[in-house]
């Protein structure tokens, strides 16, 4: 995805040991979807704190697409008002779709400050690390026997989107997780795409896979995550949440965006 930007210069940062001002790093704005479930906002704030702890000195902020305050447009306006001139927007979303391709770039384009939009968090091996941890926490065996593997499987329960790129991203995560676990991992969706979690569970049972876990491929607790977990015939993992790997992944997307756009400007 091409970064959304406006031509504004960087703001001077703190004074260094030799009296020279260091350029302030571009602000990181974590873009959450928003949820009516209060646990979601608490999770995102905890994740934001982890990111700040990993990168002291980096300005880290939060903006939502909808449902929760602060809204992204308000966060960007506040940053502009305080003199911030450069920001990288990191979507707290797990694949490509309408929000990543249209909503966030549209909000960024309306901002006065210079903005760049990072890729969504998924697919990425750090997501697989988090999924694996959450499954083990829920009771997934760390060293299953061959007999257990033959009857086990995982349904990767995601939100769903009408955008085929979103399904492609979820499929790739499912393949990475299957390689990690050594059992089939089937993507399934809460809305807007097929198969549903119920349908995926039925198909796996017909193939003799009766020890099936539902892996919650959601960034935070909410209605869809709760509904999907309720179908689990064996165990269901918690959402990805504020796992340390998620904080590292957010910073990875931030750094990748800066490196890509800086390389492009040098080439020009």
Description of the molecule:
Residues 1-25 are annotated as: Disordered. The chain has helices at 38-54, 72-81, 98-109, 125-138, 146-151, 164-181, 197-206, 223-229, 244-267; strands at residues 12-15, 21-23, 27-32, 60-64, 86-91, 114-117, 152-158, 185-189, 211-216, 235-236. Helix 4 (125-138) crosses helix 6 and helix 4 runs antiparallel to helix 9. Helix 6 links the parallel strand 7 (152-158) and strand 8 (185-189). It is built from 9 helices and 10 strands. With 268 residues, it is α/β, with parallel strands linked by helices.
Properties at a glance:
4-stranded parallel sheet, single chain, 2 domains, CbiX-like, Rossmann fold, metal-binding, 44% helix, 268 residues, metal ion binding, lyase, alpha/beta, Sirohydro_Cobaltochel/CbiX
